[in-house]
Amino acid sequence: MKIFDFLRCKYVALTPEEWVRQHFVHFLAEHKGYPKGLLANEVELRVGEKKLRCDTILYNNALQPQMIIEYKAPQVEITQQVFNQITVYNHLLHVDYLVISNGLQHYCCKMDYEQQSYTFLQDIPDYNAL
Q1: Residue 108 bridge partners (DSSP)
Q2: Which of 17, 96, 120, 123 could serve as a FRET partner for 104 with CA atoms 20 to 30 Å apart?
Q3: Residues 47, 50: Cα–Cα separation, whole Å
Q4: Which of 103, 130, 125, 115 is closest to 28 using CA atoms?
Q5: To 5 degrees, how large is the angle CA 30–CA 34–CA 39?
Q6: Which has the closest alpha carbon to 45: 57, 37, 36?
Q7: The domain containing residue 51 runs over which residues?
Q8: In CATH, what number is assigned to the domain containing residue 52?
């Protein structure tokens, strides 16, 4: 079974994680005002010979990464290991926001690099609040 990814403009395999991704990016675009043109799915990163893949990245108007979003299937518990995974991506991208969702639970952190800390937000911010 396949689902149309409106960001990649192609059909992709409908896995449980992909189901979460597609619902979440539609939520961001349709309810939170995130511009489709600034969102990208399955973004490849390289660290030397190693390839990493971010589930979704939101870019700012200067096309610099602003938010990393990591998805897990609904049955996958969001643990410290999941946060560690998104932190590895952020060492490369240095974004303002980190988001993790399994479709049932969502976590959003705002990074504070001056204080070397982060704050969990109550909700995913609207695009105009970023």
Answers
A1: 99
A2: 96
A3: 5
A4: 125
A5: 110
A6: 57
A7: 2-129
A8: 3.90.1570.30
Q: Is the pLDDT of residue 47 over 80?
A: no
Maximum pairwise Cα distance, the chain: 46
pLDDT in tens, 73-121: 999 999 999 998 899 899 899 999 999 999 999 999 999 999 988 999 9
| 104, two tokens | 């049932």
**DSSP labels, the chain:** -EEEETTTTEEEE--HHHHHHHHHHHHHHHHS---GGGEEEEEEEEETTEEEEEEEEEE-TTS-EEEEEEE--TTS---HHHHHHHHHHHHHH--SEEEEE-SS-EEEEEEETTTTEEEE-SSPPPGGG-
Residue from 35, 52, 49, 51 nearest 130 by CA:
35
Amino acid identity, residue 30? E
Question: Could you tell me which residues come within 8 angstroms of residue 122 by beta carbon, excluding any fewer than 6 positions away?
Answer: none
Q: How many domains does the chain have?
A: 1
Please report the pLDDT score of residue 48 as a whole number. Answer: 80
Does this model's pTM top 0.70? My answer is yes
